[in-house]
Design a protein that fits this description.
Strand content of chain C: 5-15%
CATH architecture of the largest domain in chain C: 3-Layer(aba) Sandwich
Number of strands of chain C: 12
Shape of chain C: globular
CATH superfamily of chain A: RNA polymerase II/Efflux pump adaptor protein, barrel-sandwich hybrid domain
Number of domains of chain C: 2
Chains: A alpha+beta (129), B alpha/beta (443), C alpha/beta (488)
Number of strands of chain A: 9
CATH class of the largest domain in chain C: Alpha Beta
Strand content of chain A: 25-35%
Strand order of the largest sheet of chain A: 1-2-3-9-8-5
Distance between the termini of chain A: 16 Å
Structural class of chain A: alpha+beta
Strand order of the largest sheet of chain C: 1-7-6-5-4-2-3
Mean pLDDT of chain A: 93
Distance between the termini of chain C: 30 Å
Number of helices of chain A: 5
CATH class of chain A: Mainly Beta
Largest sheet of chain C: 7 strands, mixed
Low-confidence stretches of chain A: none
Oligomer: heterotrimer
Order of helices and strands of chain C: HHHHHEHEHEHEHEHEEEEHEHHEEHHH
Largest interface: B-C, 205 and 202 residues
Radius of gyration of chain C: 26 Å
CATH topology of the largest domain in chain C: Aspartate Aminotransferase, domain 2
Helix content of chain A: 25-40%
């Protein structure tokens, strides 16, 4: 169900290794569905340094605000400007064109600590709905 | 225990209804429903009157109301943040519509289009008047509006100091202090003749026209502020904007005002409405409710509360403000006022107030012993330096059936702040002048 | 010819140069010198509409509203009760409506006497020592009350307190107000009986506790069984207890918050004391406090001095006060309404209010518990919280049920609050609804429960009968259109 080409966190983010040893980060399909229609993204500035589990931004739907947490430590080198202008992209395609930030990882082992697709699926099953 | 005595007209349940309900609930009396209340604290003695009929309470309230003198019976020259302006009869008529007055907050848009569309009009009209991009649906009053503007500027700039021009209303300064100091923010006072701002200053608060009625040099202040990375927050007077350039024209970032002059009765200080506008780039930091236009499932236009994630019911401790209930019906009065006064009416009111105030100032300045200590342009209020204390002067006015001005001798020696609006007739102004002429020596 | 006449055109769309809506007299003083041309505004663009057009416009759009005078509102935690019309008559008496807030006190003794009496009455109702009327809404009352607690701790040199304890069921204004005081929030969970988890509270109370903010009855409509112990625990660690008075309708005459251990609280005059809701205000949120906090009440407070049996009233701004919360003295117009209302009721009338409010809510509970999940099966106070979680199994949400009620002419109940109940529907009938109305409401809710099974689309597409069907809130948030523009 969830793609094997990346890893996941219990905060419903995914992290995928991409070009030039960067990591793309976004939210999972479960997250976008539970948020409802996304209306606004608050993303960090390019150049921001983040540590694992630090709040990197916020996603707003009509009736809720959710924090997004960085699954790894590193530097933000790019943010998805298209998604900033059209937040509905994150609902439509959360795993691909709805990515949020691109990070250069500072501690490679943190990526290994994340959940596999199967582990994430089991985690979701344990949540119930 | 069932209260004996007379049954209230506002409680439809009869004895029979109550008995039927009690039976359905399977309890022996209503007291059983209150069993969670600790016994020793249940049904305490309540030292209140017997119920009164509408007739009796009307007599008592009329008695109390007649102990008050009003500007209808005694000419009045008080200003200082609340003004006696003309209120066209349409205003009361509109806000007394049950569907406006007794409606709930418009969280369910399908049954609140009247309220929502009215607020959209309110936002639009205030933006047009203030020459600003966006407005919210109103704050409690002008004082809390400027206080929340200061907090907003600190959030936007992430700075923690607030410069306050020393010519703003002392009451506003007091409320600002109440709001900003608990959050660890610092206020410092600045004189218009020498504005120095530091790099930690989030905003400078300016009242224009100021508390004493005079225009500030907004163009210059805006320049100084923006060069310093400081936001310009201005509190203005809505009638003033009928005649003079709006602060938006000078690049003010947040513009607020007390909305009472726009069709709201004086009502001993409230309810009023705080007008709040800002540049569109700051919308997510603006407090208060905002209404937006959208479409429904049949593509018809309609209105909803929007950008609600700024507010307390969603963001809780991270909200832009704790404000919930504000002053919606007063906002409705403002819409009726501006709607009927229109471009021509508001300009006319402003000019009448201007000319009458300047006539009064001109006449007063010719009385030996009286002078106008401030130079510059004023609108509908001005300060007079008097040959006797303002206290004596105001007592003399009262003895002679007139309510005078505000004592500002803490700022200007024997200073009296006088406001004149379109409601003051030439006879009233001439009477004020002759009483001031009579009261020139200390008695 | 096919003309579509749109009654919802805005003032901007109705504007036509040359129309006027009011007239004013000619200037009766000699014209004075005008200011500098560069200061004069040349770009004032406001609509020009005739009086009759404004009246027709605003009257027509008002008819798209529900209101208490036209519809039943079972809105939990709002106390949407009937607003007696005599309140309006009294507030509109010229001697109240037309007085300037800065008038010398000798000219406003009637207003000050009324306000003073109201201070005394409100303090008496909750068993406290003092009251301030200057806060203009419940949220502002909360802010003032927490600032008073802060001032108290500071006055005792106690600077280490920084955490405010707030239940997970609290209204959003509670944590928002605590944050505005510079405090951090610690959330206390509720237990399965709908009471505060007393063990969690005990653990949370320490020397860094500012105090507890509590609504009683709570937002589940339940009277906490452990209230005395709750107050004691907070006091024992040196904190104070703040009471959110939003639910006072259940408590009138039944118990005094001061007796139970509360130190400071606020009233919502636009809830408990029948001042009209106005579409979102004006309200009024007076604060009452026990003796140790009275010196810190927001300014001004009305003072009475007696000199040779003659009472005189004045505005007092004590040095110890937390300061002003309004430019003047609060929403006086709402104070007149509440004062009128409380005098009409008297002590017995207040008891009649709480009795019938609680009876009506329990009657609804008893008649709907077999149709909607009842998370807390115990006697409720003036409001009852149901969960639509069973209906959610049929993919019908609390929102859908709420919207369907509109088709029956009933305003939706409060939904999705408190946050701790899934698909929450909070129902508060108040004492001003007749048994016929409540029976009808019960019947409608039962019909809707059946509609969920028979024809869920009817609910998911509701309401069908209103000027607008469901509106696109996502679009409104993504592409905000917050005003019209007029540039000529």
């Amino acid at each position: 169900m969830y793609p094997n080409d990346r890893k996941y966190s219990k905060e419903h983010e995914w992290a995928k290794q991409d070009i030039n040893e960067s990591l793309l980060v976004g939210i999972t399909d479960y997250a976008q569905e539970h948020l409802g229609d996304i209306v606004y993204l608050d993303l960090p500035n390019v150049g921001s340094m983040l540590s694992k589990m630090q709040k990197l931004g916020e996603i707003e739907s009509v009736k809720s605000v959710s924090d997004i947490f960085s699954p790894v430590s590193g530097e933000v080198i790019e943010i998805n400007n298209i998604a900033l202008d059209s937040p509905e992209l994150v609902n439509a395609d959360p795993h691909n064109s709805g990515w949020l930030v691109r990070i250069i990882v500072s501690n490679a082992s943190e990526f290994d600590e994340l959940l596999t697709a199967d582990e994430y699926q089991s985690f979701l099953d344990s949540l119930g709905s | 225990m069932t209260p004996e005595t007379r049954h209230s007209p506002y409680v439809p349940n009869t004895e029979t209804d109550r008995d039927q309900i009690i039976k359905r609930l399977g309890v022996s009396s209503t007291d059983e429903l209150f069993q969670d209340i600790p016994k020793e604290h249940y049904l305490p003695k309540l030292n209140l009157n017997e119920p009164l009929s509408e007739l009796e309470i009307t007599r008592e309230l009329q008695r109390l109301s007649m102990l008050n003198d009003t500007p209808d019976t005694m000419p009045c020259f008080l200003g200082g943040g609340a003004y006696r302006h003309f209120i066209p009869s349409i205003v009361k008529h509109v806000i007394n519509r049950a569907e406006f007055a007794t409606a709930y907050t418009p969280y369910q848009p399908e049954v609140s289009q009247g309220t929502l569309q009215t607020i959209y009009e309110f936002q639009s009209l205030i933006c047009q008047l203030f020459e600003m991009d966006i407005a919210n649906s109103g704050m409690y009053d002008g004082a809390t509006a400027i206080a929340e503007a200061a907090l907003m500027a600190c959030r936007i700039t992430k700075k923690d100091r607030i410069a306050v021009l020393n010519t703003i209303s002392p009451a506003y300064t007091s409320v600002i202090r109440t709001y900003v100091e608990p959050q660890g923010l610092e206020i410092y006072s600045v004189d218009p003749s020498d504005i120095k701002l530091d790099e930690r200053t989030a905003c400078i608060l300016v009242q224009h026209p100021n508390f004493y009625g005079y225009l500030e040099d907004l163009k210059n202040i805006a320049k100084i502020a923006h060069e310093n990375g400081t936001l310009l927050v201005t509190s203005t007077d809505p009638i003033f904007l009928g005649m003079f350039n709006a602060p938006g024209k000078y690049g003010a970032d947040i513009v607020v005002a007390e909305g009472q002059p726009l069709g709201v009765p004086l009502s001993y200080g409230g309810p009023y409405v705080g007008l709040f506008t800002c540049k569109s780039e700051f919308v997510r930091q603006m407090p208060g409710r905002i209404v937006g236009k959208t479409t429904d499932t049949k593509q018809r236009e309609g209105y909803v509360l929007t950008l609600q994630t700024r507010e307390q019911h969603i963001r809780r401790e991270r909200a832009t403000s704790n404000i919930c209930t504000s002053e919606a019906l007063i906002g409705t009065a403002v819409v009726a006022y501006i709607g009927s006064m229109g471009r021509v009416g508001i300009r006319h009111v402003a000019e009448m107030a201007y000319h009458k105030a300047h006539y009064a100032a001109s006449m007063i300045s010719q009385i030996p012993g009286y002078s106008l200590p401030f130079g510059g342009t004023f609108f509908k209020e001005f300060v007079v330096s008097c040959p006797v204390s303002p206290e004596k002067l105001n007592d003399y006015f009262l003895e002679n059936g007139l309510i005078g001005g505000i004592d500002v001798s803490d700022r200007v020696k024997d200073g009296l702040l006088i406001a004149v609006t379109e409601m003051n007739t030439k006879e009233e102004i001439d009477r004020l002048v002759s009483l001031m002429t009579e009261c020139r020596s200390s008695k | 010819m096919n003309i579509e006449y749109n009654e919802r055109r805005t003032l901007a769309q109705r504007s036509l140069k040359g129309k006027i809506g009011t007239t004013l007299p000619k200037l009766d003083v000699p014209a004075q010198d005008m200011p500098d041309a560069e200061d004069i505004r040349t770009d004032l663009f406001l609509p020009e509409v005739s009086e009759g057009e404004v009246v027709r416009y605003m009257t027509s759009i008002s008819q798209m509203n529900f209101s208490i005078d036209t519809n039943y509102y079972p809105l939990g935690s709002c106390t949407m009760k009937y607003n007696p019309k005599v309140n309006e008559e009294m507030a509109n008496l010229p001697g109240f409506a037309n007085i300037h807030p800065r008038q010398p006190k000798s000219t406003v003794q009637g207003a000050l006497e009324l306000a003073y009496n109201l201070q005394v009455i409100l303090a008496e109702i909750v068993g406290m020592s003092g009251c301030s009327l200057s806060t203009m809404a419940g949220a502002q009352g909360e802010l003032a009350g927490m600032l008073m607690i802060r001032a108290y701790h500071v006055s005792r040199g106690d600077y280490k307190r920084k955490y405010v304890l707030i239940p997970d069921s609290a209204h959003g204004t509670n944590p928002a107000s605590a944050a505005m005081c510079g405090y951090e929030v610690v959330t206390i969970p509720s237990d399965t009986a709908g009471n505060m988890d007393i063990d969690a509270l005990r653990t949370a109370c320490n020397e860094e506790t500012v105090g507890l903010m509590l609504t009683l009855p709570n937002t589940l409509g339940l009277f906490d069984n452990n209230i005395l112990e709750i107050c004691k625990l907070v006091h024992d660690c040196g904190g104070l207890v703040y009471g959110d008075g939003a639910n006072m309708n259940a408590m009138l005459g039944r118990t005094k918050l001061g007796d139970l251990g509360f130190d400071v609280m606020h009233f919502n005059l636009h809830k408990t004391f029948s001042t009209p809701h106005g579409g979102g205000g004006p309200g009024s949120g007076p604060v009452c406090a026990r003796d140790i906090l009275v010196p810190f009440l927001p300014s001004p407070v009305i003072r009475r001095d007696t000199d040779e049996e003659l009472d005189s009233y004045s505005l007092d701004e004590p040095d110890t006060s937390i300061g002003k919360t309004s430019a003047f003295h609060g929403n006086f117009g709402m104070l007149v309404r509440a004062y009128t209302y409380i005098n009409l009721l008297g002590a017995n009338g207040l008891l009649e209010v709480s009795e019938n409010a609680v009876l009506n809510a329990n009657y609804i509970l008893a008649n709907l518990k077999d149709y909607y999940n009842l998370p807390y099966d115990r006697v409720c106070m003036h409001e009852v919280v149901f969960s639509a979680k069973n209906q959610k199994q049929q993919s019908v949400s609390a929102l859908d049920i709420a919207k369907r009620l509109i088709d029956y002419g009933i305003h939706p109940p409060t939904m999705y609050f408190p946050l701790i109940v899934e698909e929450a529907l909070m129902i508060e009938p108040t004492e001003t609804e007749s048994k016929e109305t409540i029976d009808k409401f019960i019947q409608v809710m039962q019909i809707i429960a059946q509609e969920v099974l028979d024809d869920p689309l009817l609910l998911k597409n509701a309401p069908h009968s209103t000027p607008n069907t469901r509106l696109d809130e996502a679009k409104a948030a993504r592409n905000p259109d917050l005003r019209w523009h007029l540039s000529s």
